[in-house]
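ESCALATION

Customer reports they have been waiting on this structure for their group meeting. Please prioritize. Original submission:
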Amino acid sequence: MTWKASFAPLRNRNFAWYFASRFVNTLGTMMASIALAFAVLDITDSPAALGQVLAARTVPMVALLLYGGVIADRFPRTLVLQLSNVGSALAQGAIALLVLGGHAEIWMLAVLGAVHGAVSGIGFPAMASVLPQLVPKEHLQPANALVSLTRNGMMVLGPTVGALLVVTVGPGWALAVDASTWLLSALLLVPVALPPKERGEAVTSTLQELREGWTFFWATPWLWAVVVGFGFLNFIHAGAWFTLGPAVADDTIGRQGWGYVLSAEAVGLLLTTVVLLRVRLERPLLLGMIGIAFLAPPFFVLGAAPHLLVLVVAAFVAGVGTEVFGMGWNLAMQENIDDDMLSRAYSYDALGSFVAIPLGQIAFGPLALAFGFEEVLVVSAFAYLAIVALVLCSKAVRSLPRSPATPAPPVTTATP
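Update from on-call: job pushed to the front of the queue and completed.
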């Protein structure tokens, strides 16, 4: 793949506007994640409270994912995204005002987080499935890589900038930036013009569409095998890394150090994205599952020997593996699932993958207090590797190939 072909999706007007929307939104989100964690810890020095706030956002998001998939398969996906982004802007803006004004309490952050999670759950399937409508199939890998390049580039800067804001002017400002970027990202989607949806037959009810999605999901072995595995993997990751991580960092490497660790992970993601702009990824799920196994070493290091340099290196390698999986998974979905089913497939994927996240966010704080932070993190690392090995026992996962590469049709440059 040449560099010209790698950047070809940006010559497509629809993709260019979508790319700009994702760019501004991702910067704010990357800062907000670390800011919210330390905003909670400033109110109460309890990892359990942090887990409760994170879970309050995740539970309604998971609950509405299936409905979001139906909505995104019925209506224009950019419109669904715009409405979701505006809702997120309002929720994050309210959180920022409470934190900046010094009036924030845990229950307030939990309630507003639930609102944010609800609109995110409706919008997520549309965001995940809109790309095949923006570019031809032959441009899917470079288009996915360019979106990842934006996300991963902002992940390099976002946590560090967010941590700097936290230690200088406080977490509220990072949350305020995130709110503004949600709104701007909605505006940038206005020029995107998608082709009209084609439905093979009339839809009688939301329940019928959900049944169709479930039938397809369960009839696709590679799809359900990975999703079931990630239900357990995300339970561990949410609890060990995102809930216990900031608490351990606060007592060991410091808040700024935690920002460096998250940025190192983002550097690994970013460099891998650049490679994937040029290198065609074959056997997407086999390589992806091998890559995701590299998320386990940072748990072990965080628990057994939380030294900054070792954590930075481990996080960098984890970022490499995460990006390989992310690219492989998106290509597997986008190349092997028809457009009229894609949003629902992504919604079942997200439901199965995310359903245990709030359990991990809630459970790992009490587990660490009961059994010790080191013990819980070390066991988590070995459990993570075991689950990856079980998923790779599926022949459908190991053998799924890429679609054959064919010449791309002319790039669409139509005016609005």
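Sent to customer with the following note: The radius of gyration is 20 Å.
Escalation resolved.
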